Amino acid sequence: xxxxxxxxxxxxxxxxxxxxxxxxxxxxxxxxxxxxxxxxxxxxxxxxxxxxxxxxxxxxxxxxxxxxxxxxxxxxxxxxxxxxxxxxxxxxxxxxxxxxxxxxxxxxxxxxxxxxxxxxxxxxxxxxxxxxxxxxxxxxxxxxxxxxxxxxxxxxxxxxxxxxxxxxxxxxxxxxxxxxxxxxxxxxxxxxxxxxxxxxxxxxxxxxxxxxxxxxxxx
Length: 219
Hints:
The protein is mostly helical and 219 residues long. It is built from 13 helices and no strands. Mean pLDDT is 78; it is low at 92-99, 109-122 and 203-219. The chain has 2 domains: 1-95, RNA polymerase sigma factor, region 2, helix turn helix motif (Rna Polymerase Sigma Factor, Chain: A, Orthogonal Bundle), CATH 1.10.1740.10; 96-219, Butyryl-CoA Dehydrogenase, subunit A, domain 3 (Up-down Bundle). Helix content is 75%, strand content 0%.
């Protein structure tokens, strides 16, 4: 029996005694999921806390056999994603997620990010910021699949369970999301190179001012 299965069994028989263990084991990852989706630490903290409160209330209303059968990681992720979606819909401005080092380490090639030119390649932090901004440009359904799979580290099956989607759909969305990220990064690299040529002493004529003004340099 894995740790979460054992915890689910404990929750089924004594919710109040076992719930602090659930909080200790999952609150950080729920905060991380919310932060990647919302980009604001205060919003993410509120979503994570609300997710835990809702989990407690839900378990309190479940029969013991249903609680014992819970797959806690995808179940808690699902609650967090739904709360984050609702909060994002109410937000006046959308902000890019921050601190994506786990994605860079576990699911996305840093080389794809550090091709953005000398300024970005000099700092992992700058590479992370670039990926954060570009990640927000993905369609929401694709973005959340990429985040759960490559930031939170859920399996394809767990991601599918958390999102209520077929596994084949999740695989396709994650693949499409990563491919789109790489394409956007390539576009940013191209724009960055043109910008460098435009401002390089003695080479300003390579890129006419009108073109330079329209180039989007992603930082």
